[in-house]
Amino acid sequence: MAHNHTHGSPYSRLTERLNRFPQGAPASKLLFDILKILMTEKEAGLMAQLPIKPFRAKQAAEIWKLPENEAHKILDELAERAILVDIEQNGEQIYAVPPPMAGFFEFSLMRVREDIDQKTLSELFLQYISVEEDFMKDLVCGGDTQMGRIFPQEPQIPDEYALHVLDHERATNVIETASHIGISMCYCRHKALHNGTACDAPMDICMTFNTTAATLIKHGHARQVDISECKDLLQQAYDHDLVQFGENAQRKANFICNELGLDTITMGSTMAAAMELYEKGTVNKDDVGYELKFGSTDALIALVEATAYRKGFGNELAEGSFRMASK
Questions:
Q1: Using CA atoms, how far apart are residues 112 and 220, in angstroms rounded to an integer?
Q2: pLDDT at 237
Q3: 201: which of 40, 95, 133, 242 is 20 to 30 A away, CA to CA?
Q4: HEC states along 220-231?
């Protein structure tokens, strides 16, 4: 793939930064053309310097060597365009760089926008994701654990088999347990519309949940709905024979890993090591602050958040499995 002319450019450095995520983006001229539509060269250079983990405006200002109020303004502008996500935590604004997909690739087509050329962007996405294939193969097929999974169509499950479908396998459970629910234009069908392959399925039916939904709603990339309306839209999806494809997590563990900039593979190994130490009695509830048992999704989520923000026992885990075990 010809991209030598961009070697060392801000877009190239940003690509290297994005590829620190488990869901990266193979470098190619198409990728650089996509990034050029989404952001300026200066913005790409700034983005390339941002931390993997969530950060505050003060940290960005120090990295960029800018006054904090100026850094804050740049970050808010990027969040307004859904290139960054901003999360309010304890009254404080936290920023994070989302992966390309599921992330700012989709966000760019989740509403009609006049500030970017969505037709050209759709054509580039089609070529980069569906024709070149390297990106999609790595995203969907890379690694031992896939990032996504298909949800069963609940109305089609016979009563005698209903008990065999666990709560986390049901789309309705995702809806019922979400802190925020946002509805946007379907990225896939919006892209298809610009490429002349639109279908008759509903366009405004893409669902996002929890903190991702909160930031998209805040900046006008999603419309906030309640549980009842979201379930009605799910029924519309069933009626149009649409498949529900979502994140491959029992709850929001991987979602949090990705959102907080943690490597899911390394974090998974570290959590497993911590749980084994707990089972063997090497660490106990007083050390951790809660029961750290295998199979407990509540403990898993708490552990991910504690590690990301280096709180309590999570500060030990943030050093990695080897350093933790060495202590």
A1: 11
A2: 86
A3: 133
A4: CCCEECCHHHHH
Lowest mean pLDDT across 8-17, 212-221, 238-247, 283-292: 238-247
Query: Regarding beta strands 85-89 and 92-96, do their DSSP bridges make them parallel or antiparallel, or are they unpaired?
Result: antiparallel
Query: Is residue 104's pLDDT more than 90?
Result: yes
Strand pairing class (223-224; 181-185): antiparallel
Q: Give the pLDDT of residue 2.
A: 42
Q: Give me the pLDDT at residue 174, please.
A: 85
Domains of the chain, with CATH numbers? Answer: 4-117 (1.10.10.10), 134-247 (no CATH), 262-326 (no CATH)
d(CA 119, CA 192): 10
| DSSP E strands, the chain | 85-89, 92-96, 148-150, 181-185, 204-209, 223-224, 245-247
| CB distance 175 to 234 below 8 Å | yes
Tokens of 242: 């649409």
Q: How far is CA 293 from the centre of its chain?
A: 26
Residue 103 has pLDDT above 50, yes or no: yes
Nearest-angstrom CA–CA distance, 33 and 173: 39
Distance CA 312, CA 113 (A): 44
CA 190 to each of CA 118, 119, 150, 170, 306: distance values in angstroms, whole numbers, following the listed order? 9, 9, 21, 26, 38
The rounded distance, in Å, linking the Cα atoms of 218 and 86 is 9
Chain centre distance of CA 49 = 19
Q: Output b/e per residue, 163-202; b: 16+ Cβ within 10 A.
A: eeeeeeebbebbbeebebbbbbbbbbbbbbbbeeeeeebb
pLDDT at 88 over 80: yes
Express each pLDDT in 5-44 by its tens digit.
456 899 999 999 988 876 678 888 999 999 999 999 999 9
How far apart CA 207 and CA 62 sit, in angstroms, is 36
